[in-house]
Amino acid sequence: MQQHNRNKENKYRDINSSSELSETLALFPIKNVEDLEKVENLIKAKQYLEDGLAKDLSRIGGENSVKITKRIMYRAMTNEVGQLFSFEGAKGKNIFKNLTLFSTIIKAVRLNAQMSDATDMDIVNTIKLWLAQAKNRLKNKRSQMNDEGEEN
Fold first, then answer.
1. Radius of gyration of the chain from Cα atoms?
2. Which of 51, 69, 97, 128 suits 83 as a labelling partner, its CA being 20 to 30 A distant?
3. Structure pTM?
4. Chunked in runs of 10, what are the mean pLDDT values of the chain (152 residues)?
């Protein structure tokens, strides 16, 4: 009887954790600082959410560590949020390397079977570049939208 109750508890915990993971994934890509703070608090409080996020993000795929890291960054946050960060907080920006999301991204890259030997430096350099270019990508996107609006 005790074993039956334990199995039942585990089943409910799995359903609950799956539901929480789905709710957390619904915040992606992170569109604002408030959602980033929600995600940070959730994955700090519940390790299984960080593991689940890493597993989900690792499925994005890519031919090499640079491509998979970039794809994960695009899935993780918008350029609007990315432009608020630099890896180490340069130019008064928020520090990305201190986020739990950073360690989740490292895990995600390494969980991909082809990238298990990716070095920290490979991943970090790609993240640094992605963050540094977020403002330019946003500016280019706005410029394209303005150009398309003028054509109509």
1. 18
2. 51
3. 0.83
4. 50 61 94 97 93 94 93 97 97 97 96 86 97 95 78 61
Q: What's the total number of domains in the chain?
A: 1
Residue type, 32: N
CA 2 to centroid of chain Cα atoms: 40
Nearest to 53 by CA among 34, 77, 31: 77
How far apart CA 29 and CA 43 sit, in angstroms, is 15
Q: Give the Cα separation of 109 and 68 in Å (integer).
A: 7
Q: Print the domain residue range for 14.
A: 2-151
| Rounded Cα gap, residues 108 and 5, in angstroms | 34
- Nearest residue to 47 (alpha-carbon basis) of 73, 74, 21: 21
What are the structure tokens assigned to 13, written together? Answer: 């915990």
